[in-house]
Backbone:
């Protein structure tokens, strides 16, 4: 579905207003619990006070006994340490690339054509006034898209919404619509109302078609099970 991130600051909000979080982050469960600050550290078992900063009170061995040999492990070698090769797998070489990674751009035609097709399916079953309003909202979507007024996250989520709508996954499409209204209301408020109404009308039409098909199938089965009445000559 839609990606999870912290939204940038709203230009219409004050400088000291807290940041707004993405719709997906709000719907997910919280992260791991933090350690309470009131928890105390256990006291040492021997009863002696613990030195919190031992490095400040320690005295180097060379100062106390100049003639005594230094204790502890030998100093590390100054030679460059090379890790042994594990197995026969050659070391992977990463070649830096100067050209930036180009993401696949979402095309307007891939988003607008399925929406217009869904609107054509609803014509004849939905009121003309409702269809005209949806058509006007889709025209606003096309105008803002071609005018460069829509950000990349909005375009990507609209592509996901169209995929869910074409697959008749109504709840998923409606959830993407809500996430767009929460995270990018200033960009989508003028035309998202029409997309929401189109999802509802298409969902209702699909339910009616499924009910009609089930009724026709049940009627056909009943006609097959009823024996033919033979008339006497």
Residues:
């Amino acid at each position: 579905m839609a990606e999870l991130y912290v939204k940038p600051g709203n230009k219409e909000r004050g400088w000291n207003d807290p940041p707004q979080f993405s719709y997906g982050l709000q719907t997910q469960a919280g992260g791991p619990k933090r350690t309470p600050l009131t928890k105390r550290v256990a006291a040492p078992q021997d009863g002696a006070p613990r030195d919190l900063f031992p490095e400040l009170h320690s005295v180097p061995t060379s100062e106390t006994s100049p003639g005594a040999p230094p204790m502890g492990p030998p100093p590390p070698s100054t030679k460059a340490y090379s890790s042994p090769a594990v197995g026969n797998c050659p070391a992977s070489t990463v070649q830096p690339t100067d050209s930036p990674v180009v993401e696949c751009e979402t095309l307007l035609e891939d988003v607008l054509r399925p929406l217009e097709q869904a609107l054509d399916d609803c014509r004849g079953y939905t009121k003309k006034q409702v269809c005209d309003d949806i058509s006007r909202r889709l025209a606003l979507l096309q105008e803002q898209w071609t005018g460069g007024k829509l950000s990349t996250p909005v375009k990507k989520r609209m592509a996901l919404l169209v995929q869910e709508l074409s697959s008749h996954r109504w709840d998923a499409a409606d959830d993407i619509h809500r996430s767009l209204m929460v995270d990018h209301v200033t960009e989508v408020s003028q035309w998202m109302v029409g997309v929401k109404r189109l999802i509802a009308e298409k969902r209702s039409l699909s339910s009616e078609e499924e009910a009609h098909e089930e009724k026709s199938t049940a009627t056909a089965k009943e006609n097959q099970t009823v024996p033919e009445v033979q008339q006497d000559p």
